[in-house]
Write a structure and sequence with these properties.
This protein is an alpha/beta fold. The protein contains eight helices and eleven strands. The chain is 42% helix and 18% strand. The strands form three sheets. It has a seven-stranded parallel β-sheet with strand order 3-2-1-4-5-6-9, with helices on both faces. The protein has a two-stranded parallel ribbon with strand order 7-8. Strand 1, helix 1 and strand 2 form a beta-alpha-beta unit. Bound molecules: NADPH dihydro-nicotinamide-adenine-dinucleotide phosphate and 2-hydroxyethylsulfonic acid (8X3).
């Protein structure tokens, strides 16, 4: 808690699921954190800000609408972010924004779905990272935590695009960590297995019944479970890098190894 006290943390995709839970977990761990909460849905972010301010009077929260899949929007975001108060103070970036669309097989995947997954999960994460690296290098400090997935390690049929985006996150993260070995900047990837969030509702394009079926007879992880790990990774002594973490619920042994009751 002491190590995270007063830290400035930027979270992408904070409007739901893991990102939202991560914001709350940082505040529970260090009540005086300073959070920059971003996503496309501003209303959810404003609600989260109110919830955080009720939880801790000492937390500072800045809400910013940001679509990471749009390079121009990322540029606008950084240009508008108050320099001395927020940008120059940034300590931690959590690249969490991401999504999956559909289960179609190669040959049948809509171009729009390919683009939204790559532009969000890969290009968005790269662009956000490129924006903070110069800041972190100037201070020879900073932590980048990327949310990957078991899907990046174990590709499955019907997941060619999503799985390959998460494999890209993994490779990008590893190159970056190696590029930064002469610095004090930390780079981590956390790969969750099955987590119940809005993830499957988005995958099935709003079909709640299909999304619920994904979690029938199993006990998935919650956003809070992953949030606790993000905050743990961020809160280690500055010389400690928890480089790589794979997290399953107990019924899961791999992307397609699942025990159902
Ligand atoms: P949710 O759908 O609940 O949350 C996804 C978040 O990403 C939302 O806040 C959404 O906000 C945001 N987001 C999506 N597209 C964009 C965009 N273009 N720009 C900015 N923000 C965006 O799912 P999860 O919490 O589960 O997902 C979080 C991360 O965890 C993702 O990277 C996902 O791939 C990964 N993951 C999830 C697993 C799971 O089983 N749930 C397992 C392994 C990894 P908004 O719509 O407001 O923009
Ligand atoms: C989410 C995990 O296996 O449903 O990243 O794609 S999986």
């Amino acid at each position: 808690a002491k190590r995270l006290s007063g830290k400035t943390i930027l979270i992408t995709g904070a409007s739901s699921g893991i990102g939202r839970a991560t914001a709350l977990e940082f505040v529970k761990t260090a009540p005086d954190v300073r959070l920059i909460l971003t996503a496309r849905r501003q209303e959810q972010l404003e609600e989260l800000k109110t919830e955080i301010e009720t939880l801790s009077g000492a937390a500072e929260v800045l809400v910013k609408k940001l679509d990471v899949s749009e390079p121009a929007d990322i540029k606008r975001f950084w240009a508008e972010l108050p320099k001395e108060e927020w940008k120059d103070k940034l300590d931690i970036l959590v690249n969490n924004a991401g999504l999956v669309k559909g289960f179609e097989h190669v040959g049948d995947i809509a171009e729009e779905d390919v683009n939204i997954m790559y532009n969000t999960n890969v290009t968005g994460l790269i662009n956000m990272t490129q924006a903070v690296i110069p800041l972190f290098k100037t201070r020879d400090a900073g932590t980048i935590i990327n949310i990957g997935s078991i899907a990046g390690r174990e590709p499955y049929p019907g997941g060619s695009i999503y799985c390959s985006t998460k494999a890209a996150v993994r490779a990008f993260t590893e190159s970056l960590r190696k590029e930064l070995v002469s610095t004090r900047i930390r780079v981590a990837v956390i790969d969750p297995g099955q987590v119940e969030t809005e993830f499957s509702v988005v995958r099935f394009r709003g079909d709640k019944a299909k999304a619920d079926a994904v979690y029938a007879g199993v006990e998935p992880l919650t956003g809070e479970d992953i949030a606790e790990i993000v905050v743990f990774v961020a809160g280690r002594r500055e010389n400690v890098v928890i480089a790589d973490t794979l997290v399953f619920p107990s019924h899961q042994g791999g992307a397609s190894s699942m025990h159902r009751k």
